[in-house]
Amino acid sequence: MSIGRTESVALLGLTGNVVEIEVDIADGLPGFSLLGLPDAALSESRDRVRAALINSNETWPNKKVTVSLSPAWLPKSGSGFDLSIALALLIAQQTLPQAPFIQTTILGELALDGKIRAVRGVLPALIAAYKSGIRRAIVPAANRAEAQLMSAMEVLTFATLHEVVVWARSGTTPQVQELDLEIDDSSTYLDFADVAGQGKARQAAEIAASGGHHLLLIGPPGAGKTMIASRIPTILPELDLEQALEVTAVHSISGGLGDRSPMSRLAPIISPHHTASRVAIVGGGSHIIKPGACSLAHHGVLFIDEAPECAVGVLDSLRQPLESGTITITRSVGNITFPAHFLLVLAANPCPCGKFIGKGRACTCTSIQVRRYLGKLSGPLMDRIDMRVIVEPVGRVEMAQTELGESSSVIRQRVIAARAAAAQRFADQPWKLNAQIPARELRNTYKPEREAMNFLHDELDRERLTARGLHKVIRLSWTLADLSEHPTPTLADVQRAYALREGSEL
User: Fold this and answer.
1) For 325-395, where are the E strands, in sequence order?
2) Where do the domains of the chain lie, and which CATH numbers do they carry?
3) CA 67, CA 178: separation in Å to the nearest integer?
4) Of the candidates 10, 21, 6, 165, which has an alpha carbon nearest to the alpha carbon of residue 76?
5) What does the pLDDT look like over 238-288, one tens digit per residue?
6) What is this structure's pTM?
7) How many CB atoms lie within 10 A of CB 180?
């Protein structure tokens, strides 16, 4: 018999490599050999493919079957090769023609009854296939929304192996409805109008959203820290097509999009528990390297509540992505880099009992306990935080007010206007946000007024400010200037930025 050939994609992080599946059926003792560095899940494909073929009224050859996945040196993982192996086997039996599968990438896991199950990483796999010159793809029907984001390719979706066989033999395909990018309405019930009082924290959230600055909220339990943080995505601009593709790709490679729609243009928010491990935060794994919370929050918000309660070293592992916007994970299989441009929001109680702020009458903590508690947030990490805001307890006056505060839609318009001003200023630059201005450009092109720089240099000489802190204050002052429609940060803008960074009053 002839050799059957199909193509699929092996993913290593967000990087995909086209894999050619070859199936040879020869005389000899019945057996099944799978070559090409498969993992345990892929090695089990024999039984899934055999059952799916028989239950789809196709034949399983009672001969020696050899399946080769090339390139052989590339590690392959997961069950997404099932459909490709089954079709290559049918081609080798000459029950299917080879022509329909030329220059076609095939993804899908087979159930025992012949159904095609969804697989992870469909979007990055299609992107990799497209870059290699492939223009058609066969994917599970459950991955249709995600796959159609790759509009440059012809995407065919099927629910069962039988449907693929019918298409290959007759050329008939099931009718599918084209999908468009849309706003995910799942979070529309969240609105800043629900927040009672907390004017300082609301302003800080608006500033953070406008310039991409990191934020620390310190306040007692019930003051509204979580409410404010969870509503920051509602004031962020919609993701553009490129950003939406990046976010969907990262969430897809992690093992599923969860409650998030693949077509959503809403900025993501990821809120890992304070007991999360370092691998859960930055990514990793032994056989399959998956992105962590900082990558899942790409182009969105990473919110960590009860930050001082995190295990030692977990928060400090965020120092690299906070600076570079990427996270690199090194394992025996290779080095994998995930994107990690996110807005970090930390929330913390002022002390172990949480009642130190306000009048502090009910606080039972000693001064040493208070100092030790917030000291769990390391100096290098805090040096990367742009704003520290004290969230005071809500009083009876705020709770008794019937008038709602500004809605998220109103605040979003100011954020969009501030970002537009920054984008116009950086039109010829590779960055778009004030928080991303390189240090060299801050010293040359994007200086505040002379009086403002003198103020910062004085604070630097008094050792109240580090060099990184000085750059952080200048970036923050540019955002304040954009919100105030100042062409250049004034002394007042810089002083306010400095006060925000030090946790002083606005």
Assistant:
1) 326-331, 334-339, 342-348, 387-390
2) 4-170 (3.30.230.10), 185-403 (3.40.50.300)
3) 35
4) 10
5) 998 888 889 989 998 887 666 677 778 889 999 999 999 999 999 987 777
6) 0.87
7) 6
